[in-house]
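BUG: 3D viewer hangs when loading the predicted structure for this chain

Environment: internal workstation, default settings.
Expected: structure renders.
Actual: progress bar stalls at 90%.

Input used:
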Amino acid sequence: VPTSGMAKAKDQNIVQAQIVLTVSESKRLIAKGVAQMPIVKEALKNGIVIIAKGTTCTYVAEEILGKKIPHGAYVLGRTFPEKGGKRLKGVERIGEVVLVKGKHRDDLSLSEAVRMLKPGDVVIKGANALDHENKLAAGIVGSSSGGTTGKILPYVGSRKAHLVIPVGLEKQVSGSVIDIVKKMQEPVDSLNDVHSMFLFTGHIITELEALKLLADVSVFQAAAGGIGGAEGSVRLICRGPRQKVQNALNLAEKIHGEPPFVE
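Structure tokens produced before the viewer hung:
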């Protein structure tokens, strides 16, 4: 007689719990996960880590540097509501974070740093679109010269560096990212600002991978969305031995209450 999933879980002493994360809480969790990735820790010890600009990468930089970064100081492109909503306050921009053997080298520009990359080094770059099943991501290109992605990808590939892609499940898109990128590159007359996109892959780390890494539990997404500040949130189900699932809940409890990126 086939064993049901529930009975099987009980036989293995497996428990489950749900975790709901807002967009900003997800970004914080993902950042904590990135900071604990073995390839990132190794590069921080013996190599180079470059953190490209972005909202999620702002949190990554905070976790790795161990200090707060004014929100808005470390972003390039950004998406706001067409009407209403809050805007970033005027803050002084800072350059890309480059670490050489764990030391923050603010004297190195992004262009200089990518030329120093070697096998085993790490570049951390967020994304605007995610195809989690196929482990693909895409980024909007805001510059005709290729933007940050255009500067980074050739060196990551040719120097055999690791590309770490921290991206929330909120960026999951419908359909094939490959097809979407192809369509975005079609020469169609645009009535407003329609950018092209770059397709890339690497070490994709979402809330799922972060929880697996940090709490050693199995995780799947059950639902998404909410109201009252939970718009764009994700509902995750964690399963595993009781103590490990409790550890995941304890981690979520520390992250809950993370303020929105723009207050």
